[in-house]
């Protein structure tokens, strides 16, 4: 039996070239008789995506090459963010609220706990010194609160989506404070809060 000296670099390179050429030939033979459907993987299931149809490489297709971003990339609310507006932002506080009865507090009969997932409403307290109720302009979207007065401007991205039609606002002149109560909108509340 003859032993091969594999210690030399030249012998190792020759062995590597021999093995790699045999492996490429085997792979080519395996895929010659295979249908195109056999080469598909789990990512090919379902209708082709917009990206596959257009042949684009990015997630968001840009119509104009000079555009920095597309409309899908922009979140709700930035149209209200005006960096050139010199008015200061007022102090505000967000408080999450939940309806708790004696059966929850003492007996623990419901599945409520102190976490934010069990809260039904959000209270936003906004300090507006030297302002009147007639000066306040309030606009509410599902995830954005826009408040403007002659002296202050607040563009607040809300931590949870809310029912913007069901909210209520109350201005307290003695404290110079606006309280906005918003009902939170969560998709599974009908199941979890019963």
UniProtKB/TrEMBL annotation:
The record's listing under Pfam families reads: PIH1_CS
The PIH1D1/2/3 CS-like domain covers 89-182
One GO biological-process annotation of the entry reads: flagellated sperm motility
A GO CC annotation given for this chain = cytoplasm
Q: Which domain of life is it from?
A: Eukaryota
Q: Region (Disordered) spans which residues? A: 20-86
What ranges does the record list as Acidic residues composition bias?
23-32
MF terms (GO), sorted A to Z: dynein intermediate chain binding; protein-folding chaperone binding
Task: Write out the similarity annotation.
Answer: Belongs to the PIH1 family.
What is the protein name stated in its UniProt record? Dynein axonemal assembly factor 6
Record the organism: Hippocampus comes
